[in-house]
Write a structure and sequence with these properties.
Layout (H helix, E strand, L loop, with lengths): L1 H5 L10 E3 L5 E6 L3 E7 L5 E8 L41 E4 L10 E11 L2 E9 L5 E10 L4 E10 L5 E6 L4 E4 L3 E7 L7 E6 L3 E6 L13 E6 L9 E7 L5 E7 L4 E8 L6 E3 L5 E2 L3 E6 L2 H17 L10 E3 L1 H4 L5 H14 L3 E4 L30 H12 L2 E6 L3 E2 L4 H5 L19 E2 L5 H17 L5 E4 L19 H19 L5 E3 L17 E2 L7 H11 L9 E5 L6 H8 L3 E5 L7 H23 L1 E6 L6 E7 L5 E8 L22 E7 L15 E3 H6 L12 E8 L2
Parallel strand pairs: 22-23, 22-31, 23-24, 24-27, 27-28, 28-29, 30-31
Antiparallel strand pairs: 1-2, 2-3, 3-4, 5-10, 6-7, 7-8, 8-9, 9-20, 9-21, 10-19, 11-18, 12-13, 12-15, 14-17, 15-16, 16-21, 17-18, 25-26, 32-33, 33-34, 34-37, 35-36, 35-37
The chain binds (2R,3S,4R,5S)-2-(hydroxymethyl)piperidine-3,4,5-triol (DGJ).
């Protein structure tokens, strides 16, 4: 039955439903390795009885004890699949509503479920729930990406009550895990200091990770986490759940260790200031929560997410990317056509695919010569660019490279013609002083007219310059003084803003499906899979000090694949160009330097490195990532990518400590190779005038040897970064 259904659309799978001896029904959502099992008891109450390795015999799910068999659950819904508030629930709810008649309670009973194969290897299960007393329904969606071992879960809420219902909380998922111990790794930071990990044991009570920033929502923490079960998270072994909310606004991730010492995970939109008024017959769809369960530690979890993201989420996730030269740090706001033309030529000489013109090219009444003016006035500044963008696009193209442009279309400067013309398009309270974040305000994307304006900023640019090759979409401010001049219910604003943004991006992508677009938010203020539905790549941080970037990129790599990580070589930090290049290579390379200031050997090195990169980038972008030595616990950071055929690998090792004798003293054990294959090792990116200490002779090593004994890349204070290529010796 199951095999038959894989190729069929709309197939109701009875085989996925097991009935236990008790007469309970079991709904099984399975990937290649994992199962999530929902039990429907005789009272039609849906609970989650298993999330972990799948069993060989589907009938045995019926024997799994609910609640980890730890004692009495006073309510019998500690492990609800979607805990409703207000009736008998005593714990953190997934959903809390006030009905049209003022009743503040909800009960959700199982009605039916459907399972259908929606594409090859993707099975969607819908579980329909309903309040027995009110015409109020919730449908839970579970999309199982079978090969990638990823489950995408969201819910849809609707009702036919007489008036609007208020949704106080409306989470995306509600997971339940019985175990002895839980270790949560979460990430925190600030501008230029993104993604610092903290691993903490979870104890009874609730730990909340959240954002209330509106836009640039991930400035302090992202909606991504790891939970290790029973023992702290290890790279290669143990049970780990990696989860991330696909939402670019306020989020809340709640981790509750319940009275039975079981873990409840409730991720979703932040209920803070967001009681949502839902009209009858209107659907409210929550954002999706994405998660993967791995019993091969953090490494297994991240490889699953990477494969999923490349194949199913990021536009052209298995395609190409453009290397680029950006002018931001080379010129800041101070440029003109002449300077830019010289930079195009430099970019060509260096060997990149595209020149990216950053902030400062627009505004006339209030020219954008610093970060205080001009946002919203997306016309070329006639003093800096008298011949317009079209001229620059052609100039770049005649120098042999493509041209891309920076935009920050959601924002407005208080000093701008846009603000003068449309003060009601700006998010601000009517009776309070304006507060600025980076001297700017946020446009009200809950307003359709503003959505049209933002869409037209992109569309007009593309219509006038059809060969424009790249957009960097920035977002530098958070929402202060949240208030919309047009919205009816102010507490819908945070949600409607993000939906408005997605509407715009949906329209942009419908018209320009292949345009490469970088997701930037004053660094990594918006790195989530909601936005990455539309963007080909993201900007992890303004901090491009290569030493710092090793740590920042390392932590993003738990969730996001290297093909999407924009890693630029800049003048931040004290590292030599080789080190900066080697670090940038673990993703999509870009430059933000004055090429003409490079010394002869630096330029030669960079030109050669770009050629090498072109040859090996497919392995880095599309291969499996194995983190070998963590920069947090070793003198070196070391990680490798292995292609699917396991006949090629690129291996990076960097010195991260500078004490006497710091380095890779011993061989590092490799991972992910084929033990039966033989590999030849060659050093890449050897700096002009230096020699590789890795012997170039014909010695080959078996995958078995390299993974059991290892190999020393010989990183030390004289060789601070080493890139090695492994190729099968045939
Ligand atoms: C913040 C971005 O992160 C930078 O790369 C740069 O584009 C500036 N904004 C421009 O204002």
């Amino acid at each position: 039955m199951k095999q038959l259904c894989l190729s069929l659309f709309l197939c109701f799978l009875l085989s996925f439903t097991a009935n236990g001896a008790s007469g309970d029904t079991h709904i099984t959502i399975e990937t290649q390795q994992t199962a999530l099992v929902i039990r429907i008891d005789k009272d039609q109450t849906p609970t989650l009885v298993h999330l972990g390795p799948k069993l060989r015999n589907i009938a045995e799910y019926a024997a799994i004890p609910g609640n980890g068999k730890r004692g009495e659950d006073y309510t019998n819904i500690y492990n609800s699949v979607y805990t409703p508030a207000g009736s008998r629930n005593l714990l953190e709810p997934a959903i809390q509503v006030t009905h049209a008649d003022g009743n503040p309670s909800l009960d959700l009973k199982y009605v039916r479920h459907e399972t259908q194969a929606v594409a090859d290897g993707i099975v969607l299960t819908k579980v329909y729930l309903k309040d027995p007393q009110y015409p109020f329904e919730v449908t839970l969606y579970y999309k199982a990406y079978q090969k990638e071992d990823v489950i995408e879960q969201w819910s849809s809420i609707r009702h036919t009550e007489k008036k609007s219902v208020t949704l106080h909380k409306y989470a995306s998922a509600n997971l339940y895990i019985p175990a002895q111990n839980y270790y949560l790794t979460h990430f925190h930071g600030d501008w230029a200091n993104e993604m610092n990990p903290s691993e903490i044991p979870l104890t009874e009570g609730i730990k909340i990770l959240d954002s209330k920033l509106g836009t640039r929502a991930d400035l302090f923490q992202p909606p991504s986490f790891l939970v290790a079960i029973n023992q702290p998270a290890d790279e290669n072994q143990g049970e780990v759940i990696a989860g991330t909310l696909s939402w670019s606004g306020n989020f809340q991730l709640a981790f509750e260790v319940d009275p039975l010492h079981n873990l409840r995970i409730i991720p979703g939109i932040n209920p803070y200031a967001s009681a949502y008024s839902l009209a009858p017959n209107t659907e409210f769809k929550t954002p999706a929560f994405l998660f993967t369960y791995s019993n091969q530690g953090k490494g297994g979890a991240s490889r699953s997410l990477h494969r999923w993201a490349r194949k199913h989420r990021i536009p052209q996730g298995e395609g190409n990317r453009l290397t680029l030269l950006n002018n931001w740090e080379a010129t800041y706001f101070d440029f003109n056509e002449e300077k830019l033309s010289a930079l195009f030529k430099d970019g060509k000489k260096l060997g990149v695919d595209l020149f990216l013109l950053d902030d400062g090219w627009f505004g006339n009444k209030y020219p954008r010569n610093n970060d205080k003016t001009g946002l919203g006035d997306w016309q070329e500044n006639v003093k800096k660019l008298p011949h317009g963008l079209g001229y620059l696009v052609k100039e770049a193209e005649s120098s042999g490279i493509k041209f891309g442009i920076w935009l920050e279309p959601e924002m407005v400067s208080p000093k701008s013609e846009l603000y003068e013309k449309h003060p009601d398009w700006v998010i601000k309270l009517p009776n309070r002083s304006e507060y600025y974040f980076r001297n700017q305000l946020v446009l009200d994307l809950s307003n359709r007219k503003v959505q049209d304006f933002v869409y037209n900023v992109v569309n007009d640019l593309m219509t006038k310059n059809p060969t424009l090759g790249f957009i960097k979409w920035d977002c530098n401010a958070v929402i202060y003084n949240a208030y919309s001049a047009t919205i009816q219910n102010q507490s819908n604003l945070y949600v409607d803003y993000v939906q408005g943004l997605y509407n715009v991006l949906e329209r942009v992508r419908a018209k320009y499906p292949t345009l490469p677009m970088m997701l930037c938010s004053g660094g990594g203020g918006r790195v989530d899979y909601g936005a990455l539905n539309y963007f080909t790549e993201y900007w992890p941080s303004d901090n491009t000090d290569a030493l710092e970037r090793i740590f920042i990129q390392w932590n993003y790599s738990y969730f996001f694949p290297s093909i999407a990580s924009c890693n630029h070589i800049t003048d931040w930090g004290k590292q030599p160009i080789k080190f900066r290049t080697d670090v940038a290579m673990m993703g999509k390379i870009g430059y933000d330097i004055v090429v003409s200031k490079l010394t002869e050997p630096e330029l030669t090195f960079s030109q050669e490195a770009l050629k090498t990169y072109d040859r090996v980038k497919d392995v880095i972008w599309k291969g499996d990532l194995f983190r070998l030595a963590s920069p947090y616990t070793n003198d070196v950071a070391s990680a490798m990518y292995v292609n699917e055929a396991k006949d090629r690998s690129v291996w990076f090792t960097y010195l991260v400590k500078n004490r006497y004798k710091a380095g890779s003293m011993a061989p590092i054990k490799l991972s992910g190779l084929d033990p039966a294959k033989s590999y030849r090792i060659q050093e890449l990116n050897v700096y002009p005038g230096t020699n590789s200490t890795i012997s170039k002779d014909t010695v080959t090593y078996s995958g078995n040897y390299l993974m059991t004994i290892g190999f020393n890349p010989q990183v030390d204070t004289r060789r601070t970064s080493v890139v090695l290529e492994l190729a099968e010796a045939k």
